[in-house]
Amino acid sequence: PSVGEKYEYQAEVSRLMDLIVNSLYSNKEVFLRELISNASDALDKLRFLSVTDSELLKDATDLDIRIQTDKDNGIITIIDSGIGMTRQELIDCLGTIAQSGTAKFLKALKDSKDAGADNNLIGQFGVGFYSAFLVADRVVVSTKSPRSDKQYVWEGEANASSYTIREDTDPENHIPRGTRLTLYLKRDDKGFAHPERIQKLVKNYSQFVSFPIYTWQEKGYTKEVEVDEDPAEAKKDEQDDTTEKKKTKTVVEKYWDWELTNETQPIWLRNPKEVSTEDYNEFYKKTFNEYLEPLASSHFTTEGEVEFRSILYVPAIASTGKDDIVNPKTKNIRLYVKRVFISDDFDGELFPRYLSFVKGVVDSNDLPLNVSREILQESRIVRIMRKRLVRKAFDMILGISMSENREDYEKFWDNFGKHLKLGCIEDRENHKRIAPLLRFFSSQSEQEMISLDEYVENMKPEQKDIYYIASDSVTSARNTPFLERLLEKDLEVLFLVDPIDEIAIQNLKSYKEKNFVDITKEDLDLGDKNEEKEKNMKQEFGQTCDWIKKRLGDKVASVQISNRLSSSPCVLVSGKFGWSANMERLMKSQTV
Ligand code: ADP
Ligand code: MG
């Protein structure tokens, strides 16, 4: 019974709770994963802040999570010694939807409804604090922030539109710092309060939590106790004439105690040989709130000049569509220093923006714990780390491209092809790594994209250059008169149909010492010049050209006899140093 100030939930919260309870009913146990992950986040925050402010730790130096169960009354209590919440934070965090996990859940729910996907998928999402109401009628959160000298209690009930907050003045409830969450389970869910059940769930869901999680377990030890001999036995003994011997029996002494229930070594510190793909994928999904398995992962340690460990992932889909190309602040890389989480707020320090879709963790022993943005930006160590990380990311992508399963790379290219093309423009240093990963349609492969290697392999023995045409679609590329002569000679032409393609290719300039050549430029040389024939043509048609030029005036730079056409009467080409027609169109529409 609480007498506290009453607050209404933000409207979306009520709706969200409804959704959670109704769509997750079959997968209720996720509540524990969510609440443990909040406790772990709170401990991470505290550990991070305490690096610069050791005062924060003074009341309680143990950073852990403790889960107690009362099976007779159906109560679960989760206690963490983390950062806690002030009164205002209670209102902001537990009364509004401002949080990542829950917002993502809502979106996923909508997407999966739109796609007609089944509700099971949703169980894999981070649904946050409100998942407590999956199993509990009533939730009481008592919390003490080191920034506040008071402890507060938040109390809410399932299916209610409001909650209360009051100060916790009961000395029995006092906690030095952190949060104690008490769940009063619904009648049908009281089974979750069995200590063995909780232990099993913790093992299952909290494999990757790097703080110790203790559960309250009944223990027993055996001991020998002396027993009074019963008279009949004693008599028998006498008859057997045995010497004096005391009788004992074994009894089990029961008691309750905290038991460490999880393994706290972070997965990146383990030996890669002992970690399965499933473990990596699980870690990925839990750490980044993802529901799809990654396309690839890479776990490595670097030694020498700079030492760090890392696990990198290529996601299966771009997280915010094309937005993250322009906004590299994706929270995709989590930086740890000596296992302490430091930050996931980077802006190109560890990966160039075109690779900002790569997710992962990086743990360094060489950076100072109180590393700041400024230090990161200027650090030589970070520059070396960045180089290595980028190299590893490319290896990983190359691995996908060489996979037996062509679909994987198609998926990758669909989602992140644009990023790599941006890399051609922004990262000259890595051209050699990016170029083999590019894919284009071509005059000989209009359905399936080809790589530059495939193009080069298919080149004619006398062919020196790589031909391309930029256009707005495969159909219009195929239908240009520029193609005629090349098709006749069976020369393959790349179709650059994405607006960024042409600029990317122009930045690359060449691949395996073969220049990229735009077939619409006026000096196109197919290596079949016939001087005699040209001279004759000039004599025959020179006057016609002059006449046409006169008629068209300033509309064209010049009118020339062409040797690139076979069936069309004429073609408009761009000057050697001018923009291509495609580029001109782009510049006009300002899309680049
Ligand atoms: P998310 O974890 O994605 O932010 P949640 O709904 O799980 O969303 O939690 C909402 C917010 O409530 C958290 O961001 C955090 O600020 C606060 N919170 C929840 N549990 C705790 C806790 N045990 N200690 C401190 N703060 C917490
Ligand atoms: Mg959470």
From TrEMBL:
Species assigned in the record: Populus trichocarpa
Keywords: ATP-binding, Chaperone, Nucleotide-binding, Stress response, Transit peptide
Family statement: Belongs to the heat shock protein 90 family.
Highest taxon of the lineage: Eukaryota
A GO MF term: ATP hydrolysis activity
Organism placement in taxonomy: Eukaryota, Viridiplantae, Streptophyta, Embryophyta, Tracheophyta
Residues of the full protein shown: 87 to 678 of 793
Occurrences of domain Histidine kinase/HSP90-like ATPase (ranges): 27-189
Official protein name in the record: Histidine kinase/HSP90-like ATPase domain-containing protein
A single Gene Ontology CC term: cytoplasm
Compositional bias annotation for Basic and acidic residues: 232-246
Region called Disordered, residue ranges: 225-246
Binding site for ATP: E34, N38, D80, M85, S100, G101, Q124, F125, G126, V127, G128, F129, T179, R373
